[in-house]
Amino acid sequence: MQNSGLFRSAQRWLSRTPERSLNQAYEAAQMIEAIEREYFGGNPISARYGSYGDSAMAYFQGELKKYLNLIKVRMAVFRASRSVARVSDPRVTEVQLPSTGADDLAVNVIDQQAMFFRKLQLIDEVLARYDRLEANPERVITLANGGNGEAAPSAQVLRSRADQARIEQQNGAIAAAPASEGKRPAASDRINVLPRSILRTVDRIRQDLDPNAEQEVVQEFRTSKGRTTAAIRFVLLLVIVPLLTQQFTKNFVVGPIVDRARVGAEEQVDVFLNIEMEEEALHELQRFEERLRFEVLIGKAPALSELNIEQRVRSKASEIEEAYRDRSASAVKNVFADILAVTAFVLLLLYRKQDVANLKAFMDEVVYGLSDSAKAFIIILFTDTFVGFHSPHGWEILLEGLSRHLGFPANRDFIFLFIATFPVILDTIFKYWIFRYLNRISPSAVATYKNMNE
């Protein structure tokens, strides 16, 4: 009985999966429309339709992306579950609230399929609206309204003839504004046949004749200057704060603790942290003894007895022991100090998200503002340095230096395995970035890169 109950529950859950997925996608679409109505006047969620700051627009874009991804995932589940699960078709009673001024409730009986179609229609409209917005970004300019040169109260959106025809085919004919409102026809009805170069010229002339153009340019310059200053300041913080944290904790926090612990247990603490440090010390002592005997034999040093040579070698051994004790203690300090420095770096990234966004915008502006030849040069320099033919030698030196800094033995097998895998992964990610993003944003830069690389 229990197994049959579980089976019926599972069957019931599976049969309701299409409806549940569709409802979740429908609710996400309603949330997007609610944001559009409340904050963007019924327009799509975009910077061109709202005068918000970078933080607010980043929040709105994040919410939009979250809801769009939810819609896509839930619709994929809906389509997959519809192919395997049978959905019942009950009659559903829907009570619609009356419009303002009505006295009675309008009660309609709507079947399951009609409700599905209504929800799917809203979902398709939301997805199509933002797919169209991403595929065809519109150009917004402000045209003069009237003969007295006053600026129009709202921006007129200019679209090409092909875009306008496609929009009219999807959404139906666009209704003209009533003549009683006294508004001029839309700009797309009058000049959508003109080339974009003429539109840019009109835009430039309008900006030159605008009496507030100088103030807007100054304000834009101040805003850009503030963002650049904030980005550079944050980069300096990302470099200086971890370095200061590492040095301060090593010398004043971790250092005294490690020194006190090693002094208290000097007899039990080993001089060398690993076998490589011991081999280096023995090799250094052996070279000192051989050099001393050689200088005595060639007469460069006074004749010494075996007892004097042994005393000098013993003194040198004490010096080497003290040096390697300090080196081992420094390696232990570096481990804890580097952990604290990395923690400070991560905390900066977590608690300064606005600065991170400004830095990303600044880097995008700098990188994408370069010429195609400069982009190709930077790409080739980066790839040849980190994933090129001579890059294994550089990775080997970096890994050996890191292991020496932390007091770990340089494991040759691990180093060779890292060199054989990590640059390949990095090269794969880099090529995917070129194919996925750079090829769409700057195709000419990709073409220049291919020509220079050949």
From TrEMBL:
<comment type="similarity">
    <text>Belongs to the CemA family.</text>
</comment>
<keyword id="KW-1133">Transmembrane helix</keyword>
<protein>
    <recommendedName>
        <fullName>Proton extrusion protein PxcA</fullName>
    </recommendedName>
</protein>
<dbReference type="GO" id="GO:0015078">
    <property type="term" value="F:proton transmembrane transporter activity"/>
</dbReference>
<keyword id="KW-0812">Transmembrane</keyword>
<comment type="function">
    <text>Required for H(+) efflux immediately after light irradiation to form a rapid H(+) concentration gradient across the thylakoid membranes. Together with PxcL, contributes to transient H(+) uptake following dark to light transition.</text>
</comment>
<dbReference type="InterPro" id="IPR004282">
    <property type="entry name" value="CemA"/>
</dbReference>
<feature type="transmembrane region" description="Helical">
    <location>
        <begin position="414"/>
        <end position="434"/>
    </location>
</feature>
<dbReference type="GO" id="GO:0005886">
    <property type="term" value="C:plasma membrane"/>
</dbReference>
<keyword id="KW-0406">Ion transport</keyword>
<dbReference type="Pfam" id="PF03040">
    <property type="entry name" value="CemA"/>
</dbReference>
<keyword id="KW-1003">Cell membrane</keyword>
<keyword id="KW-0813">Transport</keyword>
<feature type="transmembrane region" description="Helical">
    <location>
        <begin position="335"/>
        <end position="352"/>
    </location>
</feature>
<keyword id="KW-0997">Cell inner membrane</keyword>
<feature type="transmembrane region" description="Helical">
    <location>
        <begin position="373"/>
        <end position="394"/>
    </location>
</feature>
<keyword id="KW-0472">Membrane</keyword>
<keyword id="KW-0375">Hydrogen ion transport</keyword>
